[in-house]
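Ticket #4471: structure output looks truncated?

Reporter: J.K.
Steps to reproduce: submitted the chain below (369 residues) through the standard prediction queue, then opened the result file.
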Amino acid sequence: MNANRLERARSLLREHGGGILALTGGATMRYVTGHPFPATDRLFLLLVPAQGPCAAVLPSFDVSGWRDIVSFECDVFGWDDTVGPARALEQAAARLPGAGRILVESLVFRYGEFRAVAQAFPGVEFGPADALVAALRMAKEREEIESIGEAARIAEISLEEVLPFARPGVQERELASRLCSALLLNGGEGISFGPIVLSGPKSAMPHGVPDGRELRTGELILFDFGTSVRGYHCDITRTFVTGALPPDDRTRDVYETVLAGNLSGCAAAKPGATAHEVHWAAQEGLHRPRFDGYLKHRTGHGLGLDVHESPSIMDGNHEALCPGTVFTVEPGLYLDGWGGVRIEDDVLITESSAEILTRFPRALRVVGG
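Returned output as attached by the reporter:
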């Protein structure tokens, strides 16, 4: 599998006019090598030329592990802390003459790595590898899809276990802690991001941070979280009402509008549909005059080895969705000082339609009564 992915990367590199694809620790490195090499403070690079053997520049203590794991042809140049990586990178550059243009991931490749590569390849032109990486990783293979689905099952089981504790007087951070523990105890590989558990007016903050605020009767409580399996992430959001009181009219109106948007966005997802079309299918009802003043955001993002990756489900993105693409549909309405509602599901484009990978019920629910 890794050899096939490498060859696809080479083919895309030629299409995008690059001489070398330079990868540092992170998701694309894992995708190509099959092993999670994280970014650290030590230079760790994989240089993939359009033709010929790859070159890896890495700390000496990682060399033996690299050779045990990586199956494709690759020259390895180790370095240690006493001399630094410059010489090893120069040796790698000597094996890769005539690079011409080096492509890097614009939101991943760090300044220190950029400067080191620029010094080893004087005069070389740099360019973004983002379109290449999106084309390489967007259509998921069967094993990738199964991992995301398994992560979603773990997330849903964990949420159901935590909901009985979502009652008035309990702090947001306590629920977030319980949720993290449940995800790991139920088989999650890790916590995809700090869980967003927000109550009352704080639920109007799409990326707020749980703290010591205590839940109160009749308020909204929003859970946005994920876990991973074999490196692949799910991402789910559900919003509830806390306490025994029935939801008020505004809460019902906002919730039912967001739910209708979620359902419409999921229904619009199919092979050949564009991200723009899915976005507006989910967003149309959110822009009615009575919701003027409410915050809205893009409808979703791709899922895979990164929690946020291509495609972006947003206005103006006319990229057609192809089979194997996994992304979120997560419309939301947020009013400062009152609260917010978001309902998020993970969607897979199949050969003929779409499959919703998250199955947690979406109907408005009162918890902790």
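Triage note (M.O.): checked the attachment and the full token line is present. The chain has ten helices and 19 strands.
Status: closed, working as intended.
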